[in-house]
Amino acid sequence: MGGQSSQATTQQSQTNPWDAAQPMLKGILGQLQGNMGNTGVTGAENNALTGITNNATNYASTYGPQANAYAGSLLSGGGALNQAGAVNQNYQNYYNQTNPLASNTNYDPMQTPGIGDRLQGLTDQITQNVNGSFAAAGRDGSGYNQKALGQGLASGLAPVLTAQYNQNVQNQQGAAGNLYGAGNTTAGIQSGMQQNYLANQGQGFNAAGQALDASNAGNNAALQAEAQRRGIPVQALGLLAQIGIPIGGLGGTSSGSSTGTQTMSGAQQFSTIMQGIGQLIPKGPMNFKF
Fold this sequence. Notes:
This protein has 290 residues and is mainly alpha-helical.
């Protein structure tokens, strides 16, 4: 025969592993408490922050207007098209000086200035030579004389007229080609100026942002300085807290309860019952009365 019995116990313990180090820890905490008043901005730090603010303010007031003017100039093209009128006028002058030669398609050599005088000189010279030869032979004015004169004039004047015709064609074509090239050159110059104008405008947007940064430099520096004035004490307190708070959490007290179950044999139960009965029977002599 067997049985079970249960028993509940409560335990409480206190841990204090740093008891031997308490004097040193108290000393550290005392030093931390003493440094609580040193977490603010020092005089040197304050002077440095004030200097940064002043320098930025001076920079903004000195270079801010120039940066704004520079950005405005670039946004307006930076003067890239200032010479456009002069370029156009140069082309117009060249065009006027080249015409009407460049547009003239009348290649008649007889319309060429000075050609008449040259032909007349050749005519006189050929006539004199041919007629002189026939006069010396006593045949001047004859039919052969007239025929020879015509042949001489044709052979002498035709090359001149042909050469002048070809020269007129060459002059006109050359002038037209030069005028075409001048037009392309002018267009290229104007296109380059326009591209430069657009490029300046693009740079102007960047410069505008830089000008804004320059204008805000003083305010931004002041904000950064004030942020550091606020942040330096907070950082110092944080460093102190990293040391002090863990120390304050050392050691502690813990408690708990537990319940256990024990199984007893029959002999153990019998022994326990007999011990209880024995405690109930009084010790010493017993008097019975009848």
